[in-house]
Amino acid sequence: MKSEILYPGAFPMVRVELAEGEHIKAESGAMVACSPTIDIESKMEGGFLGALSRKFLTGEKFFFQTLRASRGAGEVLLAPTVPGEIVVLDLDGVNEYMVQKDGFLAGADGVTIDSQMQSMSRGLLGGEGFFILKMSGKGMLLLNSFGAVHKIELKPAQEYIVDNSHLVAWSTTTTYNIEKATSGWVASFTSGEGFVCRFRGPGLVFIQSRNPGGFGAWVRQFIPITE
């Protein structure tokens, strides 16, 4: 299985080449085009309970699509719903990642997707809810962002502060705490930052250059209000 990012930047697609018999799972609706040798199936990743927990606990889709090269080798073109970059990770069976809702685009069959409960403080203040996605296993993992993706490599005990609305994914070797952006409550909210995540290495943190919530608020001001 090989992948190539096409048109990198705001509106990328990823081309995944599948050998005969290989298959990839992707977010529902992510396929743009594919070879006629590819069969498309709908699947509840992790079974009914797993799909149910993802849907209602993390806000992810109930079904994933499986694209299978059943009748010979072929290629699949995938694209995320929102404008933004695509990042390719290679899971080795050891390194695992936590992913914010809507961050998953596609993954090899060896990639396992679970929902994991966060602590009370992280669930209430982190902006991602009480459950987030955990990616583990082996194989290619494709994530998407809103805007450009920036990778931060943290050394052991190194700290970095991230606005929680800009998080995409982070390795499970990191730890983080939710805290006020400033020393005072009023200044934290009037600064527009509210709460931030203080990460501590070692590990990787992927962030996105745009804030989906902030963009949504900007768009809403132009929508006429009808009574």
Gist?
The protein has 227 residues and is mainly beta.
Descriptive account of the structure:
The chain is mostly beta strands and 227 residues long. Helices cover 15% and strands 47% of the residues. It has 4 helices and 18 strands. The strands form 3 sheets. Strands 3, 5, 6, 8, 9, 10, 11, 12, 13, 15 and 18 form an 11-stranded antiparallel beta sheet that branches. A 4-stranded antiparallel beta sheet has the order 1-2-7-4, with no helix packed on it. A hairpin with a 6-residue loop joins strand 1 and strand 2 (13-18). 33% of the residues are buried.
Shape summary? globular
Query: Tally the helices: what do you get?
Result: 4
Separation of termini? 53 Å
Identify low-pLDDT runs. Answer: none
Structural class: mainly beta
Number of strands: 18
